[in-house]
């Protein structure tokens, strides 16, 4: 089980136009190909150790002028392209080593990028990223034409849907990782945590990719997995208006229910679901925090009663506020009674 961390990172809508994400100012962030990218200032990763797993550096001045800087991590030797051959820098990693972070209730895998550019030429462009999963740690043979590694198709591709680019400025931060790349964990759904992760990347910055040190990708240790909980309940026709889902009362299917509030780290949370055929609703993987549940009755119905469940809350028709969800708790019994609109 990978470690889990919660970030105060705004989740932005998918953007294919423009295809260039500019992270050359403090606090810049955005979304490309479903992944979140965030500029990191010094100290943004806290005191967590950072573990480098691949370094890239042009081997010649001519190469830095004529070709991009590219490569990927592996235990295979000799290395391919511009990959640094030192085994302390470039080596295999497993999916289970890549930490999971939660942003607005969605799980992501976090990769960190550190660039090393001269102060007079601080910008560098991340042109391509592809992440592969393999059953061994010593795969090799990246094919620039097919965009496959050892015949494998990428699980994540920065250029999916558009020719995307991320631009960074090393003058913003010269002490720690410069960027966090958060790839949706759903990309790796069903994968064995012992699968090996291969991260291929390509950079362009004429001259700047030769004179300084290597561009490196890393992962960090994170806090122990945070215990998440859930909130669940029912929506029904409250025939006797007592706020209880009594036998014989009609469940309401297809009603929209929202959960909004802030987790214990003051990260905003906004989720939505619909009731099932039995009138039930449930929000899983919810961090400890303070939340409000609200229903949106369908046409012909109106909110009549509300009853707080096991985690408490202030109930008024159509809304239950100030629900204090504790870490690892599963709050049940949140009830919304409706009646026919006259």
Give a verbal description of the structure:
The chain is mainly beta. Helices cover 2% and strands 45% of the residues. The protein has 1 helix and 26 strands. The strands form 5 sheets. Strands 1, 3, 4, 5, 8, 9, 15 and 17 form an 8-stranded mixed β-sheet that branches. Strands 2, 6, 7, 10, 13, 14 and 16 form a 7-stranded mixed β-sheet that branches. Strand 8 and strand 9 form a beta hairpin. The longest helix has 6 residues. It is elongated. The relative contact order is 0.18.
Output the keywords.
2 domains; 1 helix; mainly beta; single chain; elongated; seven-stranded mixed beta sheet; Immunoglobulin-like; 342 residues
State the gist of this model:
The protein has one helix at 61-66; strands at 4-6, 20-23, 29-32, 35-39, 50-56, 69-72, 93-94, 100-103, 106-114, 123-134, 142-143, 148-149, 156-157, 165-169, 179-184, 196-204, 215-220, 229-237, 256-263, 268-274, 280-286, 289-296, 301-307, 314-316, 319-325, 330-340. With 342 residues, the chain is an all-beta fold.
